[in-house]
Amino acid sequence: MTAPATALPRVTDLLPHRYPMLLVDKVLDLVPGTAIRAVKAITLNEPCYAGISPDAPFDYPPALLIESWGQAAGLLASAEAGAPTDQVMLFSSVADAEFHSPVRPGELIEHRVRIARTLPDSVIFEGTAHRGDETVMTVDRMVMAFRPATLLRPDGPAAATPAEPVPTPREATRGPTPGPWR
Known about the structure:
There is one protein chain. 20% of the residues lie in helices and 34% in strands. It is of the alpha+beta class.
C-alpha cells in the first residue's frame, strides 16, 4: 500500500543531511520496505555551479547524481522504523551505474529506488533516475551498511583503545626511524 501524500515523510525527518549536501527535495511515493519515488530539482544555485565559466558545460556532476539517488535509497531504508538513533547508515558501494544522458539546471529528476535484498546489517538497492519519461541513470546495485553509532563516534568504545600505528613502507623494511619524536 502506498502512503497517502499527507503521510509521506519530510526528507529532513529521515536524513541527517542539510545544505549544501541535502540532495533530495521531496518524496512523491513511498512503500516502506519496498520502493520510493523522490525528486531532486537541479538549479543554478547548486554549489557545484559556483564560479563556473559561462562557456563551460552545465552538466550536473554524475557523482552528485549518484549521491542524490543514494539519499533517496537512504530515505527508503529509514522510512520503516524512522531514523534510528543508535545506527549510522553508511554508503558501502555502487555497481554498474550507467549514465544515459546529462542532467542540467532547470530539470526535475525523479529517483525510483527499489530494495533488491535486505540483510541483517545491510540493504541492497536497485533502480533508475528519470527526466520526465527519459531514463538518465540506471543503478544495478547500491549497498548501504548499518553500523552502531557508538562504534563510530570519537568518544565511543573504539576510541578508548588507540589503534596501533601503521608502519610506513620504510619502517616495515628497515625498522623504526630513530629520533626524539618516537
